[in-house]
Structure formats: C-alpha cells, structure tokens
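User: quick one, sequence for these tokens?
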C-alpha cells in the first residue's frame, strides 16, 4: 500500500515511517529542501521534495497514494515570527487535507496533540471528551494545533475527509534530533545542567509506541474520532528521579516556584530576540504551561484500538542512550 508521510524526518514522523516499513507499506516521504534527513538514513523510502504551503508539491506527493499520515508540524514553545508557525500548522494542514481529497486518498491519520485538549478541574487525567476552547490555549503552538484540528474536523463533517485523529502526549526515545523541549530537559539532566526544577507534570510515552498507535488508528480507528496516545503520568520530579536512576547522576533537589522562574524566562526571550539566537531554554509560555499538570488518559485508545504502550521508563532509558551515543550529552 503506497503511503505518504509528512514530517517524516522528524521525531514522531520517522518512527511512523519505520513502523510502516515493518508493516510492509510502500512509503513516500514529503521532505522540505534543506531539511535534516538523518532520521531517514538507510531507510527504503521514496523521498519527494516539497512543502506544506505548496499545493502543487502536495498533489505530486499524493499521486497514487491510498493513505496519508500527516505528522508534520512546527513544534516550538517560542517563535520570533508566529505567522510562520500558523502558516505551517493551520494553513499547511488545510492544504494537505484538501490535496488528499483531490487525490482520492482512502484514509488519513492526522497527528494532533494533547496540547489541544482541556484540563479537568479536579486534577484527574483529561480524555478525548474534556472540553477546551481557543482561549484556553497557551502560546502559539497550542493555539495553532487547536485550530488545525478544528480544520480537520470541519473537513470531515463538510467534505467527508476520511480522517482519524491521534493526540500523542509527550514522546521520548531515539531519534529526537532537534531535540524537542522535553528532549532538552533529558539532555540537561543527563549532562548535569539542571540544578533545580518546577512543580509540573507530563504524560510520557515511548515514541515507538506513538508510532504503533498511528498504525492502529489507520487499521481500527473510526473516522472523525480522536485517540490519545500516551502512557504514564509523571511529575517532573519523578522524571528527573528516573533519569537519575538510569545515569547514576544525582537528581536536582531544589524546587523553584513558577513566579521565580518567570522573570528568567522573560529575560531569556528578550536576549534571544536581541541576539537573534537559538530558541531560549526557558520560555514564558513554557512556564505558564508548567503551572498545570498535563495528565491524560489513553483508555479510549486501549479499548478501541488495542493500544498497549510499554512502561514510560523504557522510553527515558532509550532516550538517554540515544542522546549519549549521538554526542548530545557532556
């Protein structure tokens, strides 16, 4: 089965590609010119150069494809030009979905995010039915992904787009080449560059289990529905303690209040703007998001798809090993 994957060079996208190849798919990858292709090295994929904002390249990439996995997204917690993120995450999603309709694609799996979901007031894990609004979305990334998912749902309802939506939580594991914000936390912890932490929580999942969940959504998911792909809810302290167990390096013991970290984030972003440097390690949106424990339930995916993630600690162990072996840690 010929299958197109957008975002195939990325962390989740490359894991999906590997899973598809293992399942016998004829995989085609839409790749931007100049992108880092290390995650595709040695894999038997048909690489098509293109861009989500270029309709002609989308139609060319989708020609003859029965399946589309739209994994590509601009995932940053700080952007100097938010319009570029909205163009990719919303406009690009709309463009590739319209192209899929024009090309007669039979099945679409759209990679959204738990960032689009709400939070329960009693502190219990949120699920696919936990309501959320655009105004609740903190930062441009969450807002753009929320609006992109709205667009996919609209095209399902109005045009019959054959799309299933998956909402990964926080993936960890091999292939995080950027690395992601969570990957940077792991690298800093392994390298001894994290003297303190804040009280927050995430749902961690091995990236290969997220990829497996994508294929289960293709095979068993109901169009128009969404499925959370996560594993274990962990506080940041629990994550750092687990990394300490893996590495033997002491975990940080100092817990900083969010209001103390916020001025640091403001200064860090200001310096990044003035110097036009890399994304700041501490961002205002990141601190604001950290005030909530981002805990989620994957029971629907387990029940309806047969999703069965491994312990999240295995993802942390694989991530530490991969970062070390690829020279990220000092």
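Assistant:
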């Amino acid at each position: 089965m010929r299958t197109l994957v957008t975002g195939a060079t990325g962390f989740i996208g490359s894991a999906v590609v590997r899973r598809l190849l293992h399942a016998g798919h004829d995989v085609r990858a839409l790749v931007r010119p100049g992108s880092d292709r290390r995650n595709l090295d040695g894999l038997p994929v048909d690489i098509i150069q293109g861009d989500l904002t270029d309709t002609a390249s989308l139609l060319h990439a989708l020609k003859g494809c029965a399946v589309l996995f739209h994994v590509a997204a601009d995932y940053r917690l700080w952007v100097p030009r938010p319009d570029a993120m909205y163009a990719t995450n919303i406009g690009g999603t709309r463009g590739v979905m319209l192209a899929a309709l024009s090309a007669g694609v039979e099945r679409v799996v759209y990679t959204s995010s738990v960032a689009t979901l709400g939070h329960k007031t009693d502190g219990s894990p949120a699920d696919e039915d936990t309501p959320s609004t655009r105004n609740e979305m903190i930062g441009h990334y969450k807002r753009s992904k929320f609006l992109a998912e709205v667009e996919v749902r609209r095209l399902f309802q109005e045009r019959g787009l054959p799309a299933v939506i998956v909402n990964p939580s926080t993936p960890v594991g091999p292939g995080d080449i950027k690395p992601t914000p969570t990957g940077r936390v792991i690298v800093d912890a392994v390298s001894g560059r994290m003297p303190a932490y804040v009280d927050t929580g995430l749902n961690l999942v091995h990236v290969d289990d997220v990829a497996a969940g994508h294929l289960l959504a293709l095979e068993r998911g109901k169009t128009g529905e969404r499925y959370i792909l996560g594993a274990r809810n962990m506080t940041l302290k629990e994550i750092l303690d687990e990394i300490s167990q893996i590495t033997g390096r002491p975990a940080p013991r100092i817990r900083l209040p969010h209001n103390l970290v916020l001025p640091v984030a403001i200064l860090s972003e200001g310096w990044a703007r003035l110097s036009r440097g890399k994304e700041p390690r501490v961002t205002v949106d990141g601190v604001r998001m950290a005030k909530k424990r981002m805990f989620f339930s994957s029971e629907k995916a387990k029940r309806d798809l047969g999703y069965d993630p491994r312990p999240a600690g295995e993802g942390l162990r694989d991530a530490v090993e991969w970062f070390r072996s690829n020279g990220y840690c000092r």
